[in-house]
């Protein structure tokens, strides 16, 4: 036991050295170029409502299958939409997180919201509003689809949908509140954000590959239909491509 403890402490010491080196060498300085607090505040408020509506709509669509047959979980259309959402989530992990070392969907959403809320540059915020609304909408569809298929009670479904929908707007509000004191280029902020984003990338990859894609592609109905396999594959690629394209601006 003592040997294992010594080994763990040794590994922690080794892995902490790069972090200490980053903290010692980092001389990042914030830039005030293009900052406009008035315009930024307006855009942040717009972002809160756009992302809240997009997230809520994404989670709500799968639940509408009770009234609209085309949106039921056992239809080809729904399989395609889930594959598209899985593509969006995969691209979020690989394109938007891993390259910048950006814990799951909720932590990831709060981090983006704080970054947007703390920004004072309208040119940075504008493309983020559209990109994040799109991202949260389809991520909400993927999450909503899993919730519907799990057959949770209405109260649990509504609670989970609301909790997901408010994460990014909550992050924006936090970002606005700390914008005067928050320095996104400080060594501490960079290290903490990097660690959380690395964890978020892993969880998003697992969710897209195991919870969404593997379950759908192993479905007997998909195995029996070559056309449905093609539809899901194309939908997956389109979702991945569109979310990757948004990486240019966000």
TrEMBL record:
Entry's Gene Ontology cellular component terms: plasma membrane
First and last residue of the signal peptide: 1-23
Topological relation to the membrane, as annotated: Multi-pass membrane protein
Residue intervals passing through the bilayer: 42-65, 77-97, 161-182, 194-214, 226-249
UniProt keyword Ion transport present: yes
Pfam families assigned: Zip (PF02535)
MF term (GO), any: zinc ion transmembrane transporter activity
Keywords: Cell membrane, Ion transport, Membrane, Signal, Transmembrane, Transmembrane helix, Transport
Keyword Transmembrane helix: yes
InterPro entries: ZIP (IPR003689), Zn/Fe_permease_fun/pln (IPR004698)
UniProt-annotated location(s): Cell membrane; Membrane
Family to which this protein belongs: Belongs to the ZIP transporter (TC 2.A.5) family.
Name of the protein in question: Uncharacterized protein
Species annotation: Oryza brachyantha (malo sina)
């Amino acid at each position: 036991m003592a040997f294992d403890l010594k080994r763990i402490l040794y590994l922690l010491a080794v892995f902490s050295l790069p972090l200490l080196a980053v903290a010692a060498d980092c001389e990042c300085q914030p830039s005030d170029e293009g900052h406009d607090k008035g315009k930024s505040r307006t855009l942040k408020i717009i972002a809160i409502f756009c992302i809240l509506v997009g997230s809520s709509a994404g989670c709500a669509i799968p639940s509408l299958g009770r009234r609209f047959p085309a949106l039921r979980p056992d239809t080809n259309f729904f399989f395609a939409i889930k594959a598209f959402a899985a593509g969006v989530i995969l691209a979020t992990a690989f394109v938007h997180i891993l390259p910048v070392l950006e814990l799951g969907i909720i932590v990831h959403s709060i981090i983006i919201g704080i970054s947007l809320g703390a920004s004072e540059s309208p040119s940075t915020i504008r493309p983020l509003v559209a990109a994040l609304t799109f991202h949260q909408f389809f991520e909400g569809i993927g999450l909503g689809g899993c919730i519907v298929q799990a057959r949770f009670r209405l109260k649990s479904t509504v609670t989970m949908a609301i909790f997901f929908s408010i994460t990014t707007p909550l992050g924006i509000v936090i970002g606005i509140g700390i914008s005067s004191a928050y320095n996104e280029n400080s060594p501490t902020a960079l290290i903490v954000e990097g660690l959380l984003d690395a964890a978020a990338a892993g969880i998003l990859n697992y969710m897209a590959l195991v919870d969404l894609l593997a379950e759908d592609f192993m479905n007997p109905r998909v195995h029996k239909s070559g056309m449905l396999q093609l539809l899901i594959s194309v939908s997956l690629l389109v979702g991945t491509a569109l979310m990757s394209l948004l990486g240019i601006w966000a």
